[in-house]
Design a protein that fits this description.
Elements (H helix, E strand, L loop, with lengths): L4 E7 L3 H11 L5 E7 L12 E4 L5 H17 L2 E5 L4 H9 L7 E4 L3 H4 L9 H15 L3 E3 L3 H11 L5 E2 L22 E5 L9 H8 L7 E6 L5 H15 L3 E4 L5 H8 L4 E3 L8 H9 L3 E4 L4 H9 L4 E2 L9 H14 L2 H12 L8
Parallel strand pairs: 1-2, 1-4, 2-3, 4-5, 5-6, 6-7, 8-9, 8-11, 9-10, 11-12, 12-13
Helix pairs in contact: 3-5, 10-12
Length: about 350
């Protein structure tokens, strides 16, 4: 029997569709998932090849899960790292460096940009920073379709690992979602993608404020990330925009969130780094006008494909049907299911995709 392909990382909101896609198009028995559940809720995937763990289960169970994960990584043909956030995963790779040559780091964005600095950092954080840097430097392969993120990894972490320029997640795919009925007389703006400070919500509110009136509605997802910060931004948005501001504070199933995105006319992402990349692709594929910071790797990557985006400092409420149609065509071409299956087959190596 051939060795398994072991997936390790964070169980985030888009992992369940990824797992379902892998199990549908590849041999399920070859793929094992060892994933760390974060504090907020997700629908759990009940397939037999998925193992989930939360640190809330206690120290002993966490130790057992980590040992089990390390053992499966040792026996794996290939290791697929879904982000590089978890300290336990970093520690396993640091103390078992021979695993790195068969490891494929699927970059999420924030894992590249996480660089705690300063002389006053606690010793534990300094040690983790050193371990992360060494792991990244010796990584087997770095998988990201965003060239700028790979360049940041080289510049900041000193890695010489080869870049495999593939997108790997289903939430980047072009998908048509029939929008539910709504009041189309109102322009609907999506503000940010999470309760993370890198969204710079307050500054984004300043930018859109002159355009907010009774014919504008603002959707603001604040249901994952720093939830205390999310509550602060929800309060601020309601103070500034009143009934026009509609924060999302509770967990929402993926399909329901896609329904909301399908109703958005304009998306405003004020991130200071690559973030919300998959949401940005999906929105462009829905014909949404998207505003980003021009200096981000996201902006460079998507405009490089031919998509038409706008710098956030040029925000206005104007819409262009021709631009929407153009962007839909770009996303359809570059982010199809066929291309995703081909990308996965390249990363998974000898395994071929099953017929669809």
């Amino acid at each position: 029997m051939s060795k398994p392909i072991v997936h390790v990382g964070r169980y985030d909101k888009f992992m369940s569709p990824f797992i379902n896609f892998v199990n549908k198009h590849f041999a399920q028995q070859r793929h094992l998932f060892f994933l760390f559940v974060v504090s907020y809720s997700h629908e759990l995937n009940d397939s037999g090849n998925v193992h989930l763990h939360s640190n809330k289960r206690g120290l002993l169970k966490t130790l057992v899960f980590n040992l089990q994960t390390a053992w499966k990584m040792q026996r794996a043909e290939r290791i697929i790292l879904h982000g590089l956030f978890n300290n336990s995963v970093v520690a396993i790779l640091f103390f078992m460096p021979w695993l790195l040559k068969k490891s494929y780091w699927l970059v999420w964005g924030g894992d590249v940009y996480y660089r705690p600095s300063g002389n006053q950092l606690p010793l534990k954080i300094k040690f983790m920073r050193m371990m992360r840097r060494r792991v990244i430097r010796q990584m087997g392969y770095i998988v990201t379709s965003v060239k700028g993120d790979y360049e940041k990894a080289v510049e900041w972490h000193g890695t010489r690992s080869p870049n495999l320029p593939y997108f790997m997640y289903t939430n980047s795919l072009y998908q048509y979602v029939a929008p539910p009925e709504r009041n189309t007389a109102k322009t609907r703006i999506l503000l940010g993608n999470s309760a993370m400070r890198s969204n710079h919500h307050e500054q984004a509110m300043d930018i859109i404020a002159p355009y907010v009136n009774d014919a504008v509605e603002i959707i603001c997802p604040l249901n994952y990330g720093d939830l205390e910060y999310g509550k602060e931004m929800a309060k601020l948005g309601e103070q500034r925009f009143g009934r026009a501001f509609r924060p999302i504070l509770d967990y929402m199933p993926y399909d329901e969130y896609m329904q909301i995105l399908s109703t958005v006319d304009i998306a405003v992402f004020n991130h200071d780094r690559q973030q919300a990349m998959s949401s940005t692709r999906v929105l462009l594929g829905m014909g949404t006008r998207v505003y980003l910071r021009k200096e981000t790797t996201s902006y460079a990557n998507l405009t490089g494909l031919g998509a038409k985006l706008h710098a956030i400092e040029n925000f206005c409420l104007a819409l262009d049907p021709q631009e929407s149609a153009h962007n839909i065509g770009i996303i359809k071409t570059h982010y199809s299911e066929e291309r995703l299956r081909a990308n996965m087959a390249k990363i998974f190596g000898s395994e071929k995709a099953l017929s669809s």
